[in-house]
Amino acid sequence: MIESKVPVAVVSRAIRRFHISQALRPGEAVASPDSSETQSNMVSVFQLPKLTADSKLTLEAVGEPPSAASVSLPPSLAVNIRRGSLLAVQGKSDNVSITQTRFEPLKRMLYGNLASRFTQIVSTEPVQLLVSARADTILPRIFTNKTIKAIAPIELDGKSDWALFRRDSLHVYSGPSLLIDTLKIPQKISRQLARDLGSKVRTETGLFSWLRAGYTFVGGRGVIGVVGNGLVYTVNVNAGEDFAVNKSCLLGVSINGPKDLQNSIVKLEQKTQAIPAVIMPPPKVAQIRTWTDFVINAKHYAWIAAKGIKDAYFFVRRQTRETPGFVRIIGPRTVLIQAGEPHDRFERSFELPSLESFGTPIASEEKPIPRIPADYLNTVTVGPKGVTIESTDSFVKK
């Protein structure tokens, strides 16, 4: 449990414990915020069609940690999953239609390379799908993803919407009245929130970055599956309270319409001290004696080059996003956070040979020398000039 003191604006309130729970237990889904907490900001949804029991899709997390999801697909209802994440289909394959689609590829690429490749599945009979929390990447097979991923199902009933911030958060979505859009992250908070916080100027939200300027907006009615690194947890923040979270671990937050994000998040100012960088000496070059050594060492230095490009990318990203940083979530909200690493971790899928410097002498292989009788048979002759010792092959005189 996490304890949080009363927000600055309300001093007389008592301390309340935040309710934090795992969002991805098998058979459960993240519930929408209480309607009494969001009634003042709700958008009318009376025109949305109601889902019947026969046309409702169910999504259940599978495993511990839940690295997969079981999708029960009713007839004639389409479901979209990340391309390369479908593991199995239970049902008649003749009645299943699979189509590769792209969701706003240009817009999502401009707003931060958000995932846009999906697979749409429609069946004329009920089928069961098994979906992995992982999806195929464009990286070569010599680099493998070692990050643990988990999937959390969320049901939307039209009372609240969701803002998803990670580029690959949206993994599964389905619903006849589900609205999904790619929107720009607001740079400044709203004037109303600035007045509520007692600020004369509109401060930053803390989420905007020129490298990741957009987020995925999900509204309406339907079911979605959200993927995060490590386990995914939900935090319920009541009205009049705020919750500070590292923005690199923030998956999503419940909102009320596309204009409500600037009323819910504000940057948390903090002082950081720069740590001087330590310059490491370059490694020694390995000797290449065979073609196999050349191929393996070429992979080694290709990995070093890829790591340098990755370090340069994250250096530019740190400069543009001003990380590390925390943001304050203003209630009433439901927050999704990931407990794993903020970024995916890739490792090489091959072993490197032991590197030897050019100055190290190469030990030659010693071949065994066959032994002959003359090596251990000797004759001793005593004469006027002294003793003479000679090797002989045999003591038998020829």
UniProtKB/TrEMBL annotation:
> In its keyword annotation, does this UniProt entry include Mitochondrion?
yes
Q: Which UniProt keywords apply?
A: Mitochondrion, Transit peptide
Q: Which family does it belong to?
A: Belongs to the AIM24 family.
- According to its UniProt entry, this protein's organism is Australozyma saopauloensis
Provide one Gene Ontology biological process annotation: inner mitochondrial membrane organization
Task: Name one cellular component (GO) term.
Answer: mitochondrial inner membrane
Main localization of the protein described in the UniProt heading: mitochondrion
Q: Does the keyword Transit peptide apply?
A: yes
The compartments listed are: Mitochondrion
Protein name in the entry? Altered inheritance of mitochondria protein 24, mitochondrial
Per its UniProt record, what PANTHER family does this chain match?
A: ALTERED INHERITANCE OF MITOCHONDRIA PROTEIN 24, MITOCHONDRIAL
